[in-house]
């Protein structure tokens, strides 16, 4: 298991060929944006019958605007963007930001198909949790889709518990989202 030390603003965590970094440079942010686009495409590929719902949650125009704003939304010291590299190639990302005072929200966890099964998702989550704790947050929240059972299992193993919605959810999305939270 990938163990992340509680070190404030540590820039790189490494285990073998897996590296987790705070994404800062334009190239790292570009890699994260590409991974986010890959996640939306993964949703389209795996749930074609739900494309209209995916487009509601990840509206293509709003999604691209969001990707441009990632460095501001998740800026240090209240947020963080992490990129995972396996053998030097970007293979995963996760980020968090302040959702409410003392509460961080984890967003956009994604691991490419080539890197699944290498502990990348666990390492990314642990990096985000550790950094949020070091930044003074007391709990972390997240949402995920009802069809993303592997992600749900990962979150439960990491100590997240299901909870009610913590933001206003459009009626069309109520039946497909699950919400989680854990203490830090």
What is Rg? 15 Å
Q: Level of helix content? A: 25-40%
Largest sheet: 8 strands, mixed
The total of beta strands comes to 8
Helical/strand content category: alpha+beta
DSSP helix count? 5
Average pLDDT taken over every residue: 90
Unreliable residue stretches: 1-9
Distance between the termini: 19 Å
Can you write the helix and strand succession as a string?
Answer: EEHHHEEEHEHEE
What topology, given as strand order, has the largest sheet?
1-2-3-4-5-6-8-7
Beta-strand percentage?
25-35%
Tertiary shape: globular
What can you tell me about this protein's structure?
Residues 37-183 form the N-acetyltransferase domain. InterPro entries: Acetyltransferase_Enz, Acyl_CoA_acyltransferase, GNAT_dom. This is GNAT family N-acetyltransferase. The protein is α+β, with helices and mostly antiparallel strands and 184 residues long. It has helices spanning 26-46, 51-57, 60-73, 120-134, 149-157, and strands at residues 12-15, 18-22, 80-86, 89-100, 103-111, 139-145, 161-163, 177-183. Helix content is 36%, strand content 29%. It has an eight-stranded mixed sheet with strand order 1-2-3-4-5-6-8-7, with helices on both faces. The protein contains five helices and eight strands. β5, α4 (120-134) and β6 (139-145) form a beta-alpha-beta unit. The longest helix is centred in the N-terminal third of the chain and has 21 residues, at 26-46. 29% of the residues are buried. It is globular and about 40 Å long.
Question: Could you give a quick summary of the protein structure above?
Answer:
By secondary structure, the protein is an alpha+beta fold. It has five helices and eight strands.
């Amino acid at each position: 298991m990938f163990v992340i030390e509680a070190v404030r603003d540590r820039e790189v965590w490494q285990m073998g060929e897996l590296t987790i970094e705070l994404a800062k440079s334009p190239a790292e942010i570009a890699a994260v944006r590409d991974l986010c686009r890959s996640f939306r495409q993964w949703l389209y590929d795996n749930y074609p019958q739900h494309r209209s719902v995916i487009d509601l949650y990840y509206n293509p125009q709003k999604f691209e605007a969001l990707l441009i704003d990632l460095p501001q939304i998740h800026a240090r010291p209240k947020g963080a963007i992490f990129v995972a590299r396996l053998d030097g190639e970007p293979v995963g990302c996760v980020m968090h930001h302040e959702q409410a005072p003392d509460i961080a929200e984890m967003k956009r966890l994604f691991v490419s198909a080539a890197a699944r099964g290498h502990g990348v998702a666990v390492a990314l989550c642990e990096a985000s949790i550790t950094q949020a704790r070091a930044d003074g947050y007391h709990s972390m929240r997240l949402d995920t889709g009802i069809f993303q059972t592997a992600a749900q299992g990962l979150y439960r193993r990491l100590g997240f518990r299901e909870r009610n919605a913590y933001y206003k959810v459009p009626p069309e999305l109520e039946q497909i989202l699950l919400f989680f939270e854990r203490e830090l």
